[in-house]
Design brief:
mainly alpha
């Protein structure tokens, strides 16, 4: 077995144990895994391509709303709606963002992707889209997914399968070209390759996981509304999770998601939701200041002390 397969198998075992140990609060485990999916898919493109994608929720929203529309309006079976929603959401998001990332970079790409989610949010809530989206009321009820141990293990498997695939991509020749392109696209062009061809693949793989997660998430939530798809606050939460965990590590997204969700679980009975987010985001800034590589860097140090000579994980 390869090193990547062993690491991701161990990660799956750890997530399964977490689901079993916290079975009484399984909904929090599932929420943490969902946000790990969203953060890891965002980090995979943003951290390794060098493009700060502030429109990642386009994939999540397209996948979620497509599945919800098929299930709510056409009464299609939930599994079929989720599969089609994942595919359509991936393609629509990629067909929109890929040409943009080819034409602009840096601050321009960040601004266009950021403004795109604001525009899409207003479109979903507008009277033009209301027959499809039901405006601010959203599409509800949908065929739901219940908080069960089986589902918690299932989405953990989805996360780890994509994590393994992402790791293999990054260690492949395409991944090495992407790494060079992040440092200097001119070097890649000089070698006769189109850097956008490879970062476009990164974006497509990133979008596939995000759209699949979005399609599953609306059915788990029981509704497709702006707040769990396109909303800016949703995007900010994903970014904060990735930064807290360590955005240059796929495993860091998992650490960050579980930290943020369980911190919220502990704070919820004590403080209001606004204070809860203030504390968590404040912790995020503090962690980034003290440990720029995120909580995963602390975990790696601890692992090296237990297993001397062990290399850092991606």
């Amino acid at each position: 077995m390869s090193r990547d397969s062993v690491r991701w198998a161990a990660t799956f075992v750890a997530l399964t144990l977490a689901a079993v140990l916290f079975r009484a609060d399984i909904s929090f485990v599932i929420s943490a895994t969902f946000f790990a999916i969203f953060a890891m898919s965002w980090s995979f493109f943003t951290s390794y391509s060098g493009y700060l994608n502030l429109g990642h929720v386009i994939f999540i929203g397209m996948g979620g709303y497509t599945s919800a529309i098929l299930n709510y309006h056409l009464d299609w079976p939930m599994p079929v709606s989720i599969v089609i929603g994942s595919i359509v959401g991936t393609l629509l998001g990629w067909l929109y963002l890929n040409p943009i990332h080819k034409r602009v970079s840096g601050l321009s790409f960040e601004m266009v992707s950021f403004l795109s989610i604001i525009a899409l949010t207003n479109l979903v809530l507008s009277g033009y889209a209301r027959p499809l989206t039901n405006g601010d009321l959203g599409l509800s009820p949908l065929d739901g997914i219940f908080s069960t141990l089986g589902f918690a293990i299932g989405i953990a498997a989805l996360l780890c399968l994509f994590g393994y695939g992402y790791s293999r991509f990054l260690s492949s020749n395409s991944g090495k070209i992407v790494d060079f392109a992040r440092e200097s696209q001119d070097i890649v062009r000089t070698a006769g390759a189109d850097p956008h061809r490879y970062t476009g693949r990164l974006l497509l793989l990133s979008g596939l996981l995000a759209s699949t997660g979005g399609a599953l998430y609306v059915h788990y939530s029981g509704a497709a509304v702006v707040s769990n798809t396109f909303e800016l606050a949703f995007m900010i939460r994903i970014v904060v999770i990735a930064i807290i965990g360590g955005r240059f590590s796929l495993y860091g997204s998992i650490v960050g998601a579980y930290f943020v969700v369980f911190a919220g679980f502990l704070l919820k009975p004590v403080v209001s939701s606004h204070i809860e987010f203030l504390i968590i985001y404040g912790l995020g800034f503090a962690i980034y200041f003290l440990w720029p590589k995120g909580l995963i860097s602390i975990l790696e140090v601890a692992i090296r002390r237990v297993v001397p000579g062990r290399k850092s994980v991606q």
